Amino acid sequence: MISLFSAIFCSSMIAVIFKFSEKKQSNRVAITTFNYIVACIISFLLLPQKNIFATRLFYSFGNEAKEVFANGSMFSNEASGAWAIIIGSITGVIYFSSFWLYQYSVNKNGAALSATFMKLGVLVPTILSIFFFKEIPTVLQAIGIAMAVVGILIINLSQEKNIMQNIKLDLLFLFILGGLGDFNSKMYQSFGQIEYKELYIFCLFTTALIISTIILLAKNKKITKNDIIVGLLVGIPNQLTAYFLVKSLNSLKASIAFPIFSTGTILLVNIINIMLFKERLSKRQNLAIGVIMVSLIFLNI
User: Fold this and answer.
1) How far is CA 111 from CA 12, 76, 103, 252, in A?
2) Residue whose C-alpha is closest to residue 258's, from 129, 154, 172
3) Could you tell me which of 174, 183, 178, 173 has the C-alpha nearest to residue 125?
4) Which of 109, 177, 195, 241 lies in the 20 to 30 Å Cα band around 171?
5) With contact defined as beta carbons under 8 Å apart, do 112 and 169 qualify?
6) pLDDT tens digits, 75-98
7) Which pTM does this prediction carry?
8) How do the domains of the chain map onto residue ranges?
9) Which string of b and e fits 22-37 if b means at least 16 CB within 10 Å?
């Protein structure tokens, strides 16, 4: 549980850093790229073994893959290295794709609706973990998951909006991609050895960095000192969020960990906004926070 709370804290720090810098005009691609640079450096420094692309890793993976996926067992130590590289690279593509789709959706559908579908993506790893890994929540935990979804809807959507009337294809993709990245962490944890979690995270951020760098160079937009500073600052909690979230899955069901992570981040960000930025919440937001707090209690019973 300590790892999950650490992931929640680090995720909240990302929002706080962006809050401090939101008034300044910024190059989002540059911020994203420098964020990934820092995340890659930290991930590489945390690697126990730096020789990560040994041929034998993939040879072992090829021999074991069919049996592992058929029987639901785990890869051996060497094959886990290849599994970390493969699933980490796929997750990196998903992470970056969801980021770009979110930016597109904000411009097209508005921030509130986009944020709602992004956060509701927590349902994807929750449902898939129940279906594929039989991580069945208790009755009280199921109530907590349902309340978490209600809280997310209340805090992100204004009363006059009808979510069912605003569902579009891009929002559905945002919902799916937002959750698939998290589910891949569960996929790695289920079939790979925990000793290679640093390699999984390194490959995740390296893949995202490569894509981000290509787009940054193609756009050729001006990069300011503020873009670099914000990106570097965001990279630290971003990397630690991924690290602690993967680590938390060793002791917690994914169907419980992801709803707690999502709602816990929302709750902590709002508490920080009240205390640090002196923001005043509306009655609707106070109701949502109350629902989220109760959902966290049920999820932890």
Assistant:
1) 18, 44, 9, 32
2) 129
3) 183
4) 241
5) no
6) 887 788 888 889 999 999 998 888
7) 0.83
8) 2-299
9) eeeebbebbbbbbbbb
